[in-house]
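pasting for the record
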Amino acid sequence: IEVEVRGPLLQTPRYAHIKGFHFIRATPLAVHLRGYGSILEESTIAFASMHALVVNGQDHIVRKNKFLFNGNSTLTGQSYGLLLEDNYFAHNSWRNINPNFEGGAIKLIPGNIKHKIRNNKFCFNNVTAVWYDAANYGNVIENNIIHDSNINHGALFDEISFGNTFQDNLIYNNRGRGITIGESCEDIVRRNITFNNSLESVLMRGSQISRKEDEGKAARLAAEVMEKWDVRRYAGLIPYELAKPYRQKLVRYTSS
């Protein structure tokens, strides 16, 4: 089916099963999964001007699809319990709309929880393959193949998040890093193979907060605050009152 209209070509409420469709030339996005429990499988989404797929809600399944020649972040959104498996992502982000800021074959921000991203193939994209940004927790990214792409931050990139697992991925022949863990704590990175990439296999990136305090005081405050600065609170997993004193300390630390 080819439909040339503005806006999503398809939106789902709940428990929809979409199979065998071909969505082409959508503006700005092609498919929007909302509610819960929907399945998108064995379909092709191509030449969307911005996003091929936006995922919100919970417990959706996206499998055995092809995402081709989409303009910017191919898959984005905020959701719980997404299963993303056996998909093919190629030639995406060709518009090159600041891939350092919002760009990923998969760019998820914020608060994505308990995802499984496995057995997907990413190639010839002009962007990071999987990028979790801000307060994402408990996601597993495994058994994916990523090659021959232009990736600045890293083929796999976890930023300002908590407790995500990157395992058994194969990453090679890319322009950029293999895996970047940026300002995230308690991540697990194991049994990945990275080779023939232009930069580091694994980069552990630390905090880049600007400190206006003197060096010794800043270090003491950072040790006191950052140890307890658990991003899970943003997803509602830590009560507001428990987080409040640490949030106040961080405000004092960064604004003085």
